[in-house]
């Protein structure tokens, strides 16, 4: 592969979940080189994701930001305490101190995350930001949330 220059050629950055059922580029019809992809458990706009998005819009040609959560996400499958218990059980250690970030309401979390991006002091007003719920069974992106 040659010709990659690190710029997001389609002007897109996507924050999405680390779930292996998700193929972020194919989800939105893009190809390698087109987009900045940031992944973490749940597809949350974390502090680290925000820094990456600011770098994207300032230096890497990003003009559209998609925040994408998905159906049947493990992070939304149980509460914080239960996820901690599952991790602890598997590792045979106390994991109750680990901040996992369980999601209780995905649409609410998406709206909050979109607001978080839009309200960042270094986020240009003209950047489009949208939140979406991806259906892992149908392979379709839902209508914009937030
Ligand atoms: Zn997930």
UniProtKB/TrEMBL annotation:
Keywords: Metal-binding, Zinc. It holds the Pfam family Pro_CA. GO terms for molecular function: carbonate dehydratase activity; zinc ion binding. Its EC number is 4.2.1.1. CDD domains: beta_CA_cladeD. SMART domains: Pro_CA. PANTHER family: CARBON DISULFIDE HYDROLASE, CARBONIC ANHYDRASE. Catalyzes the reversible hydration of carbon dioxide to form bicarbonate. Belongs to the beta-class carbonic anhydrase family. This is carbonic anhydrase. It comes from Nocardioides euryhalodurans.
